[in-house]
Amino acid sequence: MKITLNWLRQYVDFDGSPVELAERLTMLGLEVEGVQKVAGDFDGVVVGQVLSREKVAGSDKLSVNRVADGRGERTIICGAQNHQPGDKVAVILPGFALPLKPGEKEPFVIQERKVFGVVSQGMMCSNKELGLGEDADGIIILPAEANVGQTFAAHLGRTGGDVIFDLEITPNRPDWNSVIGIAREISAVTGNPLKLPEIKLPDAAGHVDEIVAVRVEDAELCPRYTARVIRGVKVGPSPDWLRAALEKVGLRSINNVVDVTNFVMLESGQPLHAFDFHLIAKAASGKPTIVVRPAQEGERFTTLDNQERVLTAQNLLIADGGKGIALAGVMGGANTGIADDTRDVLIESAYFSSVNIRRTSKSLGLRSDSAYRFERGADIGICDWASRRAAQLILETAGGQLVGGVVDTCPQPPEPKALSVRQEKVQQLLGIEISRSEIERMLGSLGLMVARVPQPLDGTMADAPPISVRVPSFRVDLKRDVDLIEEVARLFGVDKIPSTPPRGAIGMNAYDFVHDQLAEARRLLAGLGLNEAQGQTLIDDAKAKLAVIPAAIVPLANPLSSDMNVLRPSLLPGLLDSLQHNLSRKSGDVALFEVGRVFTLVNGHSKEERRIAIALTGRRAATFWSGAERDAKFNVSDLKGMLEEFLEQFGLRGVVYSRRAESTPLFLESATVSLGGKLPLGELGQLLPVLVKKYDLRDAVFLAELNLDTLLARRNPARSFKPLPQFPAIGRDVAMLVPDATTHETVLAAVKQARPANLEGAELFDIFRGKGVPDGQKSMAYAFTYRAADRTLTDAEVNTAHEKVIEQLEKEVGATMRAG
Amino acid sequence: MSLINDIEPLKQDGIAALYAAADLPALEQTKGAWIGPQGKFTALMKQLGTLSKEEKPAAGKAINAAKIELESALAARRDELELKAALPKEPTDFTLPGRRRTLGKLHPLTQVTEDIVRCFRKIGFAVADGPESEDEYHCFDALNTPADHPARDAQDTFYLGTAARPLLRTHTSSVQIRVMKSQPPPIRIIVPGRVYRRDNADATHNPTFHQIEGLYVDKHVTVGDLKGTVEFVFKQLLGDDVKLRFRPHYFSYTEPSFEIDFSNALVKKLGKDWLEIAGCGMVHPQVFENVGYDPEVWTGWAFGFGIERIAMLRYGITDIRLFYENDARFLRQF
After folding, report:
1. How many other CB atoms are found less than 10 A from the CB of residue A691?
2. CATH assignment of the domain containing A741
3. Do the beta carbons of residue A388 and residue A367 sit within 8 Å?
4. Most-buried pick from A228, A337, A523, B329 (CB within 10 A)?
5. Whether residues A176 and A68 fall in one domain
6. Are residues B256 and B181 in the same domain?
7. In a domain, B313, yes or no
8. Mutating which of B100, B118, B160, B284 best tests the A interface, going by the most A Cβ atoms within 10 A?
């Protein structure tokens, strides 16, 4: 909300500068987001009179002039030709700036300077220089009656400079959506009195209830409705002060009557509406009747902005006998607005339920200053005051005669509500010492009515009754004791509350340990050379379908765009997007991991799960300048190796990798990862080439994703010491021909079946196809290590055990041992 | 007595010859020429037998000493030549780039989150967590923000078509409720996590972003405690020169509520006096009542702030979207 300094000053005095005021307001919780000086308003420009004009020696055009400025005389060098001694002119004094012209960044500041040896002390201005018009031929010659020495602004009849404050009003303080509300706050903090405008209405003939009736059908949605009528107004442009007041805070001036309703709304916070009285249809009784009723389902109504709206029974309508004439609290109707030929005006000042206004405004997508105020909670107590204030200003600006009295459906607004707070609670919550009388003074300064209580004889706090206040109707936010404590904190000054060093209970939460485990997983993955990514949670459903079946995807009911319309069911689509982003910026070597949550639809519920995912593409190692392997690209073994190292370090044993027989929507070739072939952990594989192309990627892409929740549940990070071997190991290498389809796992299974004594390990060190290996077969070479914990093995012992291994391999795998 | 007089010159010549050998094969040759079976010095030793019984001991002693000298000269020269032979033909260019094993980097948001978590843990906070898909109750109602409350305007919400938890949480404050409902006071937790608001992505907005929430509930907790803890954490995070300012504000789930502004050299460089960084306040008694805590016994404070904002300030990042693009050139900078 915008507010001006001059307007504020009509209700409260404030001694400091605008910047100090902004600071005070901000520290009261009324954050000032901008302070803007306006109009420059011809600062430093005064009415002067040319006393003499002489030629400047050495110049054709310039003249040297003596000019009276009301305080004395000054010398001004001028290039204009259109002035004579005796002319009244606009003089800008040195040190002041000309108004900013469009496109200028820095204002031009006039300085004393020497021209042809003469010091020029200011400048006589043209219209263009003062931003008053395009006329740059010669300086402004003012009428002879202009007062020398008067400020130019005053001469023009314009107000002096003003300051516009842009305030962020928190939704709990609807009373701050008004100049008076803010003035009240300044009054509280400065102690200067709040000066409310005095309203004196002329004695009026007749009574308004003779010419108009009001019927409220739903008093819950409209607890108060007032109507006043002024006859014989002359609708026209607003006077300068009114137009300027509205325009400075960003409202458009419409006409004197409408402007008054807006002015009073900004002044008091009470939204008003003015109807053309004669456009309100007469009821059977012969009197125009205002009916406040729910709209009919599907009822059509055209608002002031000329939009036709289709209403529902949820919308409250102001109607006459037949038609709607205003959308209650939101916007008036096009059919009854004030026009140039309006003669009689009905002023509506009502109070509507905030929830209903909010729903109507939201469902119709129709925001207005009025709806904004009602939905935050208006002041039921101020309806009649605001109506009388508007009547006063309409009579002043548009003339006419007031019809006597008011129609008011709630002449006795509810009593102010009572609240109390104990002094010790104020002290305890804020951590300050503050006296009872100081608290009472503060609450009183905000307009709360503090009840007088007899002081207890011994003056102890515990025996004292709580501080009791009555809350005026404009403070809808004050509901319980803690709200009063906040008022004390604000006026006391939060900056004055002393800080106490951290103390108190030690925190505990089951998740605390999980957090560390996630951090550990991240550190391990980064140690493997992967950079951590953070992807969008919201992704494109088409991409989500790469990872899961459509029925498992959780859609957004109100997405912002089609590329962010579902929750990610997997981290992999996001990582693919990141690969694409990197490739499009010419970095083709990318190794990423992400730790994050994914969402799947299970029985109509969104199920959250933590996952780890890895994506690799491009070259395996950083650029190097030598060696055959330097340009080697990532392949599936790099990914598998990372998973193996990660899982082992993270404390998972018995991990099984099983190749999928078919391609998937994502993978060309892939394997599931599980614990013991039973408990699924995730998957890894190579991205389909068609997707490589679709994502504009260059090299093969390898992806893996694991369920981190399962890893956390099944990991065993406990370590225990195993004594280092005391006796030497004996090695036996085996190279064998096996059928092509033989997997490493089947070889190990056969070795295990042989149950060789003292076998410590079997390590695959070569796979070979080609020369010397028949088609349909491959050569696999393993290094077997035998060792006993308690002695040095003999060759004979090892041979016996190793023979069993070889026999088993020949039998189970169909291996043929290769010589040497 | 010519023999004994020949020993010393012959030894000198031998040592000179050994040192003159330019490489290991030459050294082996020289060795043969002097102390090999046919060597000059060996020949001298063979003459020892021709000497008289009186001359023999002195000459023998001198010859042995000379031989030892020759052998040690040989060993010394061999060491020198072996070292020379081991050096590569071309001297190594130690300015050449090495073969890098690159470490992966943690995402800047992770790093900042960990720093924040570390600060809080120093003063006894535990980390807590909750679901990102939430219900109206935990995200709004229990936090004293019923439907139709204007405070909901600031937090435009994504809704899911799901039954149980039909929206994406707009703040980590929902976890306050879950934790308080699941454990009795006192409480001292922080909650880092993802939150969602229906804002179009631009330089300062992303529909997904991260917050961290702090909640402390105990007996006799005051606004002074809130200020003290916040000051401690932000001094740790942003440096000792940081100045903080608490400004009254409004949040539906705290009362009184404050916004926190900070100021340091960086803020001044941005041409500002203060920069808003967090919201906080004393837990609203209504919230305590909603979770079954007695507000007459327990008081507490909560605060929350955006992690991206801290990271952007710390590293001078000007576009929030960079965090979610995962450009390797970006990730490797932190």
Report:
1. 16
2. 3.30.70.380
3. no
4. A228
5. no
6. yes
7. yes
8. B160
Q: What is the DSSP string of A151-178?
A: BHHHHHT----EEEEEEE--TT-GGGSS
Q: Total structural domains in chain B?
A: 2
For A726-737, the DSSP string reads -S--EEEEEEEE
If one compares A109 and A295, the residue with the highest pLDDT of the two is A295
Is omega for the bond preceding B256 within 30 degrees of 0, making it cis?
Answer: yes
Residue A582 vs residues A590, A624, A774, B106, B325: alpha-carbon distances, Å: 7, 21, 44, 17, 8
* pLDDT tens digits for range B174-231: 999 999 999 999 999 999 999 999 989 999 999 999 999 999 999 999 999 999 999 9
pLDDT at A454: 63
Q: Quick check: is A804 in a domain?
A: yes
Does A762 lie at the interface with B, CB-CB under 8 angstroms? no
Q: Which of residues 244-273 of B touch A (CB under 8 A)?
A: 245-250, 252, 255-259
Beta strands A467-471 and A417-421 are antiparallel
Distance from CA of A411 to the nearest CA of B (A): 28
**In a shared domain, residues B56 and B149:** no
Give the per-residue pLDDT at A100: 73
Does B270 map to a domain?
Answer: yes
The reply to whether B96 touches chain A by the CB within 8 Å rule is yes
| Domain shared by A347 and A487, yes or no | no
Same structural domain for residues A345 and A492?
no
The answer to whether B95 faces chain A, any CB pair under 8 Å, is no
B126 and B78 share one domain:
no
Strands B275-283 and A88-92: unpaired
Quote the minimal CA–CA distance from A377 to chain B in Å: 10
Tell me, yes or no, whether A105 and A123 share the same domain: yes
Domain that holds residue B193: 108-331
A518 inside 8 A of chain B by CB: no
* Domain hosting residue A147, numbered range: 41-156
**Gyration radius (Cα) of chain B, Å:** 42
Q: Computed from CA positions of residues A675, A676, A677, A683, in that sequence, does the dihedral angle turn out positive or negative? A: positive
A550 touches chain B (CB under 8 A): no
A713: closest CA of chain B, how far (Å): 17
Nearest CB among B101, B186, B248 relative to A489 is that of B248
Kindly tell me if the per-residue pLDDT of B53 is higher than 90. Answer: no
Nearest-10 Cα torsion for A633, A635, A638, A642: 120
Are A492 and A362 in a shared domain? Answer: no
Residues of B in contact with A171 (CB under 8 A): 149-151, 153-154, 250
Task: Give yes or no: residues B164 and B312 share one domain.
Answer: yes
Place of tokens 């006799």: B220
Q: Do A624 and B200 touch (CB under 8 A)?
A: no
How many pairs of residues across A and B have Cβ atoms under 8 Å apart? Answer: 272
**Co-location of B64 and B122 in the same domain:** no
Interface of A with B in 446-485 (CB under 8 A): 480, 482-483, 485
Write the CATH number for B254.
3.30.930.10
- What pLDDT is stored for residue A622 in this prediction? 87
> Tens digits of per-residue pLDDT, B244-297?
999 999 999 999 999 999 999 888 888 888 999 999 999 999 999 999 999 999
The count of domains in chain A is 6
Residues A352 and A255 in one domain: yes
Contact B188 A505 (CB under 8 A): yes
Residue of B nearest to A511 (CA): B128
pLDDT at A130: 82
Q: Do A438 and A329 share a structural domain?
A: no
Contact A527 B104 (CB under 8 A): yes
Task: Say whether A538 and B196 touch across the interface (CB within 8 A).
Answer: yes
Positive or negative: CA dihedral A760, A766, A771, A773: positive
Q: How far apart are the first and last CA of chain B?
A: 85
The verdict on A549 and A651 lying in the same domain is yes
Q: Is pLDDT of A107 > 90? A: no
Q: Is A625 on the interface with B (CB under 8 A)?
A: yes
- A-proximal residues of B, 130-149, CB under 8 Å: 131-133, 148-149
